[in-house]
């Protein structure tokens, strides 16, 4: 709902999607209270119910790490983009140096994925069957595999929740923000950043002679 509200208030035509109908009900109520009208669609991001080349921009926040097939989700996002359309995707980093945000357990991403659920259950009593964060390299590979260009995977800005998870190390947050924007070291920072941003675009159609 936040993305739909932000875009609609800037005069952009927005369509919101979610696989869980209950969250669309919540989003509808929020939009109504804000006086905003926008289509909301219940669907799976790995199988979008939209024609090819439907959107100038596709934005996904906090979705990729919950996908059963992240490559399919990225490919579907690319499919529905117009030529020269832009994809912006933000997701949890598999190799984050902070505790995994969904379960509060450190080091999950550094283990083989087949061990992750057992490790989380041992450490916290929680299950980890529906989370699959990707690394910067995996995200980059998924974007390039479906033909996207100008692919950039960078460390994302820290959210307030990330700063809270830093605890006594919160004082390093300003240095992190500077480092992630510095070309010489930003790529290194992205390997252990809490969140990653993917920016990419769909190529333009070749000009026929």
Task: Give the SSE map.
Layout: H1 2-9, E1 16-18, H2 21-34, E2 40-42, E3 55-61, H3 70-79, E4 81-92, H4 113-124, H5 136-145, E5 149-155, H6 160-166, H7 173-181, H8 183-190, E6 195-201
Helix pairs in contact: 3-5, 7-8
Can you give a write-up of this model?
Helix 3 crosses helix 5 (136-145). The relative contact order is 0.14. With 209 residues, this protein is an alpha/beta fold. Helix 2 links the parallel strand 1 and strand 2. The strands form 2 sheets. A 4-stranded mixed beta sheet has the order 3-4-6-5. A two-stranded parallel sheet has the order 1-2. The longest helix has 14 residues, at 21-34. It is 37% helix and 19% strand. The mean pLDDT is 92. It has 8 helices and 6 strands, in the order αβαββαβααβαααβ.
End-to-end Cα distance: 44 Å
What's the helix count? 8
* Contiguous uncertain segments of 5+ residues: none
Question: Helical percent range?
Answer: 25-40%
Instruction: Find the structural class using helix and strand composition.
Output: alpha/beta
Largest sheet: 4 strands, mixed
**Strands, total number:** 6
Average pLDDT taken over every residue? 92
N-to-C series of helices and strands: HEHEEHEHHEHHHE
CA-based shape: globular
β-sheet strand percentage: 15-25%
Going across the biggest sheet, name each strand in turn: 3-4-6-5
Computed Rg: 18 Å
Provide key terms for this protein.
globular, alpha/beta, 8 helices
Brief sketch in words of this structure:
This protein is an alpha/beta fold. It is 37% helix and 19% strand. It has a four-stranded mixed beta sheet.
């Amino acid at each position: 709902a936040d993305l739909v509200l932000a875009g609609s208030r800037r005069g952009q035509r927005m369509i919101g999607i979610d696989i869980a109908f209950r969250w669309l009900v919540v989003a509808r109520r929020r939009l109504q209270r804000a006086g905003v009208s926008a289509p909301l669609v219940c669907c799976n991001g790995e199988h979008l119910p939209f024609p090819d080349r439907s959107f100038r921009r596709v934005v996904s926040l906090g979705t990729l790490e919950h996908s059963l097939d992240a490559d399919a989700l990225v490919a579907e996002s690319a499919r529905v983009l117009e030529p020269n359309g832009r994809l912006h995707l933000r997701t949890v980093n598999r190799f984050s140096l902070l505790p995994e945000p969904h379960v509060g357990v450190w080091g999950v991403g550094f283990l083989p994925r087949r061990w992750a659920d057992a490790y989380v259950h041992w450490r916290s009593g929680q299950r980890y069957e529906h989370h699959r964060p990707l690394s910067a390299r995996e995200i980059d590979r998924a974007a390039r595999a479906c033909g996207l260009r100008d692919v950039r995977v960078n460390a994302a800005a820290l959210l307030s929740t990330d700063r809270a998870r830093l605890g006594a190390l919160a004082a390093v947050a300003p240095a992190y923000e500077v480092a992630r924007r510095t070309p010489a070291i930003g790529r290194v920072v992205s390997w252990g950043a809490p969140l990653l941003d993917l920016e990419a675009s769909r190529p333009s159609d070749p000009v026929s002679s």
